[in-house]
Queue: 2 jobs
Job 1
Amino acid sequence: MGLYEGDDRGIVDASAARAHADAAGITVDRNNVLYVRRAVLEEYQELTTVLERERMDWRQQSEPYGRDPVSFDAAVAFPQRAALLLEACQKYADELLVIADNLAKAAEAYGYTEDSIVEMTPTATRAAVARMSATLRDLLPW
């Protein structure tokens, strides 16, 4: 169930959005939309920091632990499997940016200005949000 399921204009599917919010235990309203968005962006920031550190650690883990055949195979397989896991985590992080973008749109609908939204955006994630927004505009047809 996606936020835009069944609507090619990009309007949020209210029932899908409600189901996502209920699953997450979050209710967004005019009073908390900017704070929820900030929390999502802070989670994104923390997750991407961990992912970068883990990527660096696994790039350095290319030597076998021992001289036995299992260690040689593991030296190849472990980094490959770690890369797949890190890729899945990166997709989750990217979804957080999409959620933050949707929350920014909700904030605008509630009457918040772009300046007030930017003011509540953690500094370290502003560039990432801009990149993701540009990417979304290229990918989405609406």
Job 2
Amino acid sequence: MSLAAKTLTAVTSNYIGTLVRVVAQFGAQLVIMRQLGPEPVGMFGYVTLAFGVLALFVDQGFGWSLIQSDWDEEEIKIVLSRLLLGSSLAAVLVYCLSWPAEYYLGGLAGSLFRWAAPSCVLIAVWGIAQARLRKDLQFGKIQIANTGAYIFATPVVGVTLALLGFGVWSLLAAWYVQSILMVAISYYYAPHSLKLGNPFKSTRAGALGRQVAGINIVNWSVDNVSGLTVGALGPSALGTFNAALMLSRTPAVQLAQTLQSVLFSAASALGQDAIRQRRLYLGALSVIALIATPAYGYGMTHSDFIIRMVFGAKWIDASGAFAAMTVGMVAVAMNALSGAMLTANGGQGAVLRSQVLCLVLMTVALLVANHFGLVGVGLAISLAYVIRLVYQMRAMAERIDIHAGAFVEVMRGPLLAACVMAIPLGALAPRSIPEAAAEGLALLGQTGAVLCLVALFPRWFLSDPLRDVMQRFGPGVRLLRLVDR
């Protein structure tokens, strides 16, 4: 099977799994968050913040650097030993964090940290197995592991326990079930030696791993410095902010991360072929832009309706932050692709510089914006993410010779579609019509208007990179024949 065929198969498998996972995640989160409310969700948010940063240090970048490794048995023994050592130290640290958590946040927070600590050890085996599957472009199996684990853990275990009144412990139980299942399924598909070696011995994957780890740590800081800032306001504020962030960020991240993994693997295989690299990058960027930009354009002007429909009226305070972050989340989706392509082409330094710039700008902006509430925090996040995207796109353009006009061609159609989707038509409906029915009819009308514009002006909306992608799929070929008549 050719690299192009493998890449398309991987993308298809990834997005089928992603669609299932996103639907399951939203359904489960809807029930759990409606049941628990902002404060318990915010309490568990402190645990996830701690685990997020520790997981990056434990992984040490091997989750990505092993993709370019030759998988020598001795190297795997050393990597596994390092991961086990790091995860054991992380578990001890999380347990120790239970005491300050109990002092500042109460006994419940301390208990959560103590009971969550052992799950750190699971990172070791999971990281190696998933890296092997990524190397072989076995993204269908990755989706079985990740999506299957999530579907059983959160919608089944988490929702059931929440409905039975177990409160925040339902989130911790789902956390454990998902982690254990992901490790078991990943190892089943990609078994490797469990022999241990000298964790302090050097490895060939270590150099790239350290670079990737540095980027990942900065990435985590960029993604979570806002949570740390809001967390100082208390569990309720953190829970409200996390609801807005989850609802705005999850579609963007899931849309991009699955394609990001495929792009990194495919770009690594292409080597220094700039022409094919350019086609791969612009094609992926055009697909993401066409999906994400109109969707978030709609979300920006319909945030109150979306929050009420998804989480319920008691979460309405999250609507302002959600609307403020929509522009930033389009940038997040597109930025994930640029970062993956730069990393695969030896541009880790550019990625790291862009992330540091984003972190500095976001930190400064958040110190000011925090005085203006959650909306100010959302605007600061969007500003920093857009600047990061521009920096990385410029670096990618210089590396594989892309002119600014190519980016304009990719973005012009999605931006016009976003303007159409952002029109608040539902607000014009008579009050006698239920809000959900009015907004649903308006959404159908706006979607129809966008499709009509595509049919009338196909060259404007369907850029050459997008056409190149569409021509590789049967439905895409038929659609191009239809609009080009």
